[in-house]
Fold this sequence. Notes:
- This protein is α+β, with helices and mostly antiparallel strands.
- Helix content is 41%, strand content 29%.
- It has a single domain (5-150), classed as Aminopeptidase.
- It has helices spanning 13-32, 35-41, 44-53, 55-58, 94-106, 118-125; strands spanning 5-7, 61-65, 69-76, 79-85, 110-114, 129-137, 144-150.
Amino acid sequence: MKEPIRKAAEEDASRLAEILIFTKRATYRPIFQEDQVSFGEMQVLPLALAYQTDARKRENIWVYDDEFVKAMIHIEGRQICELYVDVFFQKEGIGARLMEFAVNVHDADYLWVLEKNERAIRFYQRYGFIMTNERKPEEGTKEFVRKMIRCEN
């Protein structure tokens, strides 16, 4: 069986956009309660076109593809910038595989997480990430993000 984690490609643009938009809506709408952003500003087509036409936008993105793209992870240097699993495939170990990939292959050791995203915080803690006191405003919102770092056991 071929390795399901691979670099994002131009033909992944539509799935990347779908996963990002729909997962962000499901995750963040209860936190931000900002329908104008969730259903107005966040649109699949413009994001898909950006991923399709600008290879730089895909440069540090890897996808989980075991028949079709089910998830994505964006890693910049040692930072995990984004990790999204299509809502239909959550709880299948895909996020775990992407975290192991980030930590073991890319030596990822920090990320920023919304303070109110308790589910994500618990998930990252399972992979040795702990909350620091470092926090900053999430751009364009009234919410804050906190830095999590990986502590090796």
